[in-house]
Amino acid sequence: MPAALEQQTRGPERDPEPNESMKLRLVRHSHTLALALSATSAPGLLLAQQGPASAQSTPPLATGPALQSVIVTGNPLRSTDISTPTSVLAGGALVLRRGSTLGETLDGLPGVSSSYFGPNANRPMIRGQDGDRIRMLSNSGVALDASGLSYDHAVPIDPMVIERVEVLRGPAALLYGGSAVGGVVNAIDNRIPKARNGGITGAAELRYGGPAAERGASAIVEAGGTGFVVHADGFWRQTDDMKVPSYPRPDGSGGFETAGRIVNSASKSHGGALGASMVWGQGYFGASVDSFNSEYGTVAEADVTIDMASNKLTLAGEVRDLGGFVSAVIGQWLVSDYRHQEIEGGEVGTTFKTKGSDLRLQAQHMKLSVGGGSLAGVFGLQTENADFSALGAEAFVPGTTTRQYGLFFLEEFSKGAATLSFGGRVGRSTVQSAGDAPGQTQFGAARSRSFTPFSAALGAVVRLSPLWQLSAHLAYTERAPTFYELYANGLHVATGAYEVGNPDMAVEKGGNLDVAVQWKQGAHRARAGVFYGDLSNYIALLGTGRAEITAAGPVPVFAFTGVPAKLYGVEFEGHWRLLDGSRQVELDGKLDLMRATNETAGQPLPRIPPARLTTGVNWTTSGWAARAEVIFAAAQDRVPADDLATPAYTLVNLALSYKLRVTDADGHFFLKFNNVGNALAYNATSIATVRPSAPLPGRGLMAGVRLTF
């Protein structure tokens, strides 16, 4: 075990319970997809929004006009005051924060971390929740893949081709189904244009550098007349093995070897999309096709490469101002074909496939006058179909089919300084196992399980004064078990464990409460919130203490087990302007900490992020913008008995940008210098079998140029 990890104490603490790529972004949005400008951001280089949106000056790296921000995700009525804790990343902040994955890009936002299976496969985690508790969306549609099944399966959404990301922290199952009990990540692009263009516009960007020597390029073009708009984009990226500070890497035979790179972490990715829409004054209708392809090494096995491909067809439309009780209708249908092959020694070992569709229809009714206030609302239905198969020697889950249907509604009552929201969702989920394929004996006979999950939510936002606002969100959620939580039975090489599902698993249930207070005075603002979750039958992958004899030798057995659990924490974000005028100096800070406990064992839940504190200073003048930040992560020694603690670390990051006008185009040059001190750091949310082999990135300087016309 690396020395930095050796100082960790084994077992739980017995204390009482109570940042590659580029995206060529074009701002051509209708009011339904407005550019987000943060209510609690650091200016210029950081755009992260908490709660209700507000307009602010355009960051130095952003393009387009400063528009009034509207949260899209979980906010179908486009309200400016919403009770769900929300963060938004867009504009210049997204340009600078883009990494090779969504997990890396979003890591460090309040309550958001990354599962970090090396630099190529890390999924966003929200408040310590990951996998299928976090709903991954693309333009509010379900992103069908296999990333929830295994940590080495990447999310087929590349940060290069998105112009905005919205993160909802906490349950959003009301609108997006049971898989959103931990939160939602919505990657938004303009592949189906929703507004008239009026000409030819576009952008291009080049990047080079960083600890993985990233090389990348991307381009976007949009054109259209009065009613027909077309969109095209493409991206390419290649990286080398990631450089890290010198560390003791496990050699696979019980010893260690000194390494300065993460072995087998290089990658190649490319993709693009074509889209078109008919746009008119009261709506739009369009379609897009897109493709994502990636080849990358899996850091758990030095000789295994993953070849992933995802292809999607999407139809979407909206009709507004209908004049009757139903005032607007929105629809989206997505068909996805995902394939993931694990290649060892040039031969395909195991192939994972997911094919399916997602249909969402949503209607908004006219505003009604009730009790001296106004009542607005939406209602709708959603269906999801997914067919999964895993063929090969490392298949630890049988072929399955999942069918989900849901009906939902959300109402919002506004009167004076208060807004109250309430709604519910009922669904039906059927998960069927095909059982053993020819030559298999591990999964048994075919069987099927059906569930009827229910969710309800109540939220309130009260403007206490021109400076202060109070918000609260109370939710009850139920989540049906996934196919792997029910039917897994085999050696999972990526985790180094034999994983066993429970085909008799019951629905996961839980209550959650979020309360926050927000203050804003001019350029100064702050938000502090607390959250608490009490869940019964929380489905976790827990060690059994047993071992299974496999061809690779004895491996520990982990079982998906339902346990009562409690999760609670604190989140804070603040922003202060120290100097105003032609030169601006601003300070910002973020703090989040949480605890999660398995109430049955009296032990912490696994892979919970440690307390984190980020402080930054920002300076802007005459087209220049600079930022320096310090990130401190405390030691995570509150771990279950079968894990090791992770030591604390401190990272220093610097960024510099310059904006200029070149004829009819905007040019942006930027530099990022991350981990200036080349600190050796490990991610507490990585699985224990991979954590020692995959430290966080070392010192790296990245340069980029972007042209928008």
What does this structure look like?
The protein has 709 residues and is mostly beta strands. Helix content is 4%, strand content 55%. The chain is globular, with a radius of gyration of 24 Å.
Number of structural domains:
1
**Assembly context of the chains:** single chain
Could you tell me the radius of gyration in angstroms?
Answer: 24 Å
**Structure classification:** mainly beta
DSSP helix fraction:
under 10%
Q: End-to-end distance, in Å?
A: 52 Å
What is the CATH level 1 assignment? Answer: Mainly Beta
Outline the secondary-structure elements.
Elements: H1 3-6, E1 86-90, H2 91-97, H3 102-106, E2 112-114, E3 124-126, E4 134-138, E5 141-142, E6 164-169, H4 173-176, E7 183-188, E8 199-209, E9 214-224, E10 228-239, E11 243-250, E12 256-261, E13 267-280, E14 283-297, E15 304-319, E16 326-344, E17 347-370, E18 373-392, E19 400-415, E20 418-433, E21 447-451, E22 454-463, E23 468-479, H5 483-487, E24 489-492, E25 497-500, E26 508-521, E27 524-550, E28 553-579, E29 583-598, E30 603-604, E31 612-621, E32 624-633, E33 649-662, E34 665-674, E35 700-708
Parallel strand pairs: 4-7, 25-28
Antiparallel strand pairs: 1-6, 2-3, 4-5, 6-7, 8-9, 8-35, 9-10, 10-13, 11-12, 13-14, 14-15, 15-16, 16-17, 17-18, 18-19, 19-20, 20-21, 20-22, 22-23, 23-26, 24-25, 26-27, 27-28, 28-29, 29-30, 29-31, 31-32, 32-33, 33-34, 34-35
Quickly list its features.
disordered N terminus, mainly beta, 22-stranded antiparallel β-barrel, single chain, 5-stranded mixed beta sheet, 5 helices, 35 strands, Maltoporin, Chain A, 709 residues
